[in-house]
Structures are given as structure tokens and as C-alpha cells.
Design a protein that fits this description.
Membrane topology: Multi-pass membrane protein
CATH class: Mainly Alpha
Mean pLDDT: 83
Protein name: MFS transporter
Low-confidence stretches: 483-501
Domain Major facilitator superfamily (MFS) profile: 14-480
Structural class: mainly alpha
CATH architecture: Up-down Bundle
Order of helices and strands: HHHHHHHHHHHHHHHHHH
Oligomer: single chain
Number of domains: 1
CATH topology: Growth Hormone, Chain: A
Shape: globular
Subcellular location: Cell membrane
Main location: membrane
Strand content: under 5%
Radius of gyration: 22 Å
Helix content: over 70%
CATH superfamily: MFS general substrate transporter like domains
Number of strands: 0
Number of helices: 18
């Protein structure tokens, strides 16, 4: 058996720059949310087009992630990483300098395109640079904390930039992140050439997967605005189901598939993608409702609202680096993921108790801390399991599946829970209204809104409980402290290589 190559001595420094890039991509999903009212007023964006500032990004990002993951496998993860960073920075510059609605929406779509290259390249670089079990646990602990906390950090950063500078800096700030990460990539990131996939790109697979995912994400977006039974909504869902079904058939027959079915049919990885996607549905819905609750009901400023999420960020960092990373080498992944999602669901249950006059310290603080601890603990082994034991040439696409499950989950969560909240609010108003004057009463309006938020958060609680059950039932891998694969294949056949000097 040949002697294993020495690990890259610069891998920990490389992790810093990979983490910076990942933080940029994740926080960009929420940093613009806080700045959106200012951008809308400045550029004269209509209420109908307002959602597209967010949707243009999520559509391009979610729809092209599998393509980005496979490009990383074919072209090289470092190359894809750098191109993704440069493109993201350029798109952010265009968006920050936007003079009209069309320019901003185009820039946001471009951000999504380059984010789809960048995100899977970042995660797969970790997979090929950290193969020692103990080091992998630490590296994925840090990465998991950033992936989980990035959205909340975006709310804080968006509040700071909007309040003290202006909304354009919510986009311009990406240039600083990207340039820093590019310099780091050029100087310290290296990857093994023999981990690349030598096959050609599966063009039919790219078209079918991208169109199917875009139809799915757009369908949920239209459900939020037009209703679940609208013909456009139903048509998009049917189109998505057909396109993705044809995609699976094509992938099972072509020589070099975009998504080798072995990546998702392996029980542990499939369980991670499913449970993580469901958990994100609940988490993204929470961000949406609590932001409205803090600003419209409790009267917080954008900046104060952002900082109100800090306990959850702290909980995620502790859960990921101190609980998940330390226990990952001692207990099976499902014994971290299932309890993690369960603790997060208890936090969600506490948050569902919000009232118009709730105390931050009594209701929101404990709920947010438990949410953070639980999600952080579960995210870390989930991120690691998603790429554990994959063939080197599949590392990029396996990484893309993690991002896809999160992105699609976030889009579904926002639309699904928002619709449930709106329906609950409408029903409450119908049963409590005594005269038309009630609709002009601030307390009545706030009580109806908070009832809707509470109902939606109860649904998010149920979704997180389901996520915990699925993680426990489906993820049955052993402790990740050896080079053994979940499917039992020998390490020397398919182990992700380390970088030799």
C-alpha cells in the first residue's frame, strides 16, 4: 500500500479564506432584506417587483447549484472558486451602482449565477483538503457555524450598513469579502489534480436540473403572491415534477451524469439532504417573521433588529464548534443531528408563544439561544456527512446538493410559512372584527399579525420535529473517526485525496 501523502501545511489558513467566501454567499441571502425598503424608495421599485430583488438571486442560485458543483469537479475547485468570487464581486458592484429596477434585478440574478459556482467549490475544497477525521471535524465545525449563522449575520450587517451608510453598501461590502478571498485563494489554496472528473459536462442533465429547480423555486414564489391553486402556481409545480423526473431517468442512463445517482441514493447522504432541507424551511421562515415582529410590532430599528438575532448566532457557533465538533469523533452523526434538530424545535416552540407585549428576555432570548445551539450542533455533522465517503470526482456535486437542499428549503420556507401566516391572520381578523374601525386600530392590527406569525412558527416547530425524526431514522453511519466509508468501500479506492507537497 503506497504511503499517504502529507497534508497541505497551509490548509488551516486556506480554511479562513474559504470561510470568508461562504459567509459572503450565505449572508447575501438576507443582507439585502434589511436594505430592501431603502432600495425600493430610492429606485422607485414597485411593490409587485419588490420580491424579485430577493427572488432573482434565489432562482439563479438554487437553479444552477448542481451545474456549479459539476463544473468544480471538471474544471478544478480552485479555478471555479476564484471565478465565482470575481464574478460575484463584479455583480455586486453593478447592483450597488444600480440606477433603476432592471439594473438591480439583473445584478442580483448574476450574483446568484456566480454564487452557484462559488458555494459548492468552497465546500468541496474543504472535502479534499481535510481528510484526517479529527481535523475534518474541526474544519467542518467552523464551516457549519458560518453556514448556519451567516443568514443572521446578514441581518445585522444589513442593519448597520443601511443605518450608517446607505442600502448600496449592502452590495458593495461583497467586493471586500471577494477580493480578500481571491488573494487568499491565490496564495494558500491548493488542490490535488487527480481528484478531478475527466468526463465531459452532461448538458441535457444541466438543462433539465436547472429548469426543474427554477420551476420549483419560482412555483413557491408565485404561491406566496398568487395563491396555491392559481393556474401559474400549479403549472410550475407540474413542470418541475416532470422535468426532475425526466432528469432522474436521464441521469440513470448517461455515461457521465451531472448528478450520479449514487450520491443521493446512499442512505446517509440522502438522509442529510432531506433532513437539512426541511430544517432550513423552518429556520428561514423564522428569520422572516421575527424581523417583521421586531420592527413592526416591537418598534425596533433595522440595526436593533439585526442585533436581536445575535444570541442565535452565538448559539450556532457554540453548537457547531464546541458541541458538534467535539462529539463528532465519539458519537454517531444521527445522535448529534436528531437531538440538534429537536433542541432547535424546542426553541421554535418557545418563540411561537410571542404576543404583542412579549418580553425579549423572557420569550425571544431563550428561544433564539436554543435554536442556535440546536441548529449549530446538527449542521456540523450534516455538512461533514454530505461529503463523507464520496468519490473524489463527485465531491463538487455532493457539496452542491447540500447547498441545493438549503437554498430550495429556504425558498419553500419563505413562501409556505408566509402563506400560512397570512391565512391565519385573515381568519383571526374575520372572527375578531366588530367594526370597520378595528382595521385602523394599531393594537388590533398588531394582534392579528402576531397571531399569524405564531401559527406559522408552530408549523415550523412541527417541520423541525419531522427533520429530527428523519435524521434519526435515515442517517445510520458509524462514528466518523476513521477513513471507512458509509457504504463500506475501501478507503484506498475512493478516498478523497489530500494535497501532497
Amino acid at each position: 500500500m503506497p504511503e499517504a501523502p502529507l497534508p497541505d501545511p497551509k490548509r488551516w489558513t486556506a480554511l479562513i479564506f474559504i470561510a470568508i467566501a461562504q459567509l459572503m454567499v450565505v449572508l447575501d441571502a438576507t443582507v439585502v432584506n434589511i436594505a430592501l425598503p431603502s432600495a425600493q424608495a430610492d429606485l422607485g421599485i414597485s411593490d409587485g417587483n419588490r420580491q424579485w430583488v430577493v427572488t432573482a438571486y434565489t432562482l439563479a442560485f438554487g437553479g444552477l447549484l448542481l451545474f456549479g458543483g459539476r463544473v468544480a469537479d471538471l474544471w478544478g475547485r480552485k479555478n471555479t472558486f476564484v471565478v465565482g468570487l470575481l464574478g460575484f464581486a463584479a455583480a455586486s458592484a453593478v447592483g450597488g451602482a444600480a440606477v433603476n429596477t432592471e439594473m438591480l434585478l439583473g445584478a442580483r440574478a448574476l450574483q446568484g449565477v456566480f454564487g452557484a459556482l462559488l458555494a459548492p467549490a468552497a465546500l468541496s475544497l474543504l472535502a479534499v483538503m481535510f481528510t484526517d477525521a479529527k481535523e475534518r471535524a474541526k474544519a467542518f465545525g467552523i464551516y457549519g457555524a458560518i453556514a448556519g449563522a451567516g443568514a443572521a449575520v446578514g441581518l445585522i450587517l444589513g442593519g448597520v450598513l443601511t443605518e450608517y451608510l446607505n442600502w448600496r453598501w449592502a452590495l458593495f461590502v461583497n467586493i471586500a469579502f471577494a477580493v480578500t478571498a481571491v488573494i487568499g485563494a491565490a496564495t494558500v489554496i491548493r488542490e490535488p489534480d487527480h481528484g478531478r472528473n475527466p468526463n465531459r459536462l452532461d448538458v441535457p442533465g444541466v438543462i433539465l436540473a436547472s429548469a426543474g429547480l427554477v420551476a420549483l423555486v419560482y412555483g413557491f414564489s408565485r404561491a406566496e403572491s398568487d395563491g396555491w391553486t392559481a393556474s401559474i402556481t400549479l403549472g410550475l409545480f407540474v413542470a418541475s415534477a416532470v422535468l426532475l423526473a425526466v432528469f432522474v431517468i436521464v441521469e440513470s442512463r448517461v455515461k457521465a451524469p451531472l448528478l450520479p445517482l449514487r450520491v443521493i441514493t446512499e442512505r446517509n447522504r440522502g438522509g442529510v439532504y432531506l433532513s437539512l432541507g426541511l430544517a432550513v424551511i423552518g429556520m428561514f421562515g423564522l428569520f422572516l417573521f421575527l424581523t417583521y415582529y421586531l420592527q413592526q410590532v416591537m418598534g425596533y430599528s433595522a440595526l436593533k433588529s439585526g442585533f436581536a438575532f445575535l444570541p442565535m448566532v452565538g448559539g450556532m457557533i457554540v453548537g457547531s464548534t464546541q458541541i458538534g465538533a467535539r462529539l463528532m469523533l465519539r458519537v454517531r452523526p444521527r445522535l448529534l443531528m436528531a437531538p440538534g434538530f429537536l433542541v432547535a424545535s424546542i426553541g421554535m416552540l418557545i418563540l411561537a408563544q410571542i404576543k404583542v407585549d412579549s418580553s425579549y428576555a423572557v420569550v425571544l432570548l431563550p428561544g433564539l439561544i436554543l435554536m442556535g445551539l440546536g441548529m449549530g450542533t446538527a449542521f456540523m455533522p450534516a455538512m461533514s456527512m454530505a461529503t463523507h465517503g464520496v468519490r473524489p470526482e463527485d465531491a463538487g456535486v455532493a457539496s452542491a446538493m447540500v447547498n441545493t437542499s438549503q437554498q430550495v428549503g429556504g425558498s419553500i420556507g419563505t413562501a409556505l410559512l408566509n402563506t400560512l401566516a397570512a391565512s391565519a391572520t385573515t381568519a383571526w381578523v374575520a372572527s375578531h372584527k366588530t367594526s370597520p374601525a378595528d382595521l385602523k386600530n394599531a393594537l388590533f392590527v398588531n394582534e392579528s399579525a402576531v397571531h399569524g406569525y405564531s401559527v406559522a412558527i408552530y408549523w415550523a416547530f412541527a417541520i423541525l420535529l419531522l427533520s429530527a425524526v428523519l435524521a434519526f431514522v435515515l442517517v445510520d453511519a458509524e462514528v466518523q473517526n476513521t477513513g471507512e466509508h458509509a457504504d463500506g468501500e475501501a478507503v484506498e479506492d475512493f478516498a478523497v485525496p489530500v494535497v501532497a507537497h
